[in-house]
Task: structure prediction
Amino acid sequence: QAQLIESGGGSVQAGNSLRLSCSASGRPFSGAYMAWFRQDPMKGRVFVAAINWNYGSTYYGDSVKARFTISRDNAKSALYLDMTSLRPEDTATYYCAARSTEHEYGIPVAAVSYDLWGQGTQVTVSS
Result:
C-alpha cells in the first residue's frame, strides 16, 4: 500500500513563495490523478489543484489560479505545488491526495473522489 508524504510547509510573509512536495512511498504511483487540497474550518477540504498523472493536464481552484502551479515527476512518483504571491487567506493545512482510477468526467475536484491521502503540511502566511 503506497503512502503519501507531504513536505515543504512553513511560515512566510504575504507575497512570498513556497514549494510543497508530495512523495509516494511504498511503491511507485501508478494511478490516474493527484491533487492538492487544503483544510478550511468551515468548508472542510477545499480543492486547490489537480493533475492527470499520465497526461499532465491540470486544473486549478479559482482562488489559486495564476498563483499556484501543480506539477509532477513520474519517475520519482513526486507531486509538487509551487505557490507564489501567497496571501494570509492561503493559510491552511495542505493535503496531497491520489486517485487510482480514471474519472468519467475528467479531473475530479471533490475530496470524496480521492482514495489515498497524506497527513498534511501546514502553511502559514502572515500579513
About this structure: Residues 29 and 77 are 5 Å apart (CA to CA).
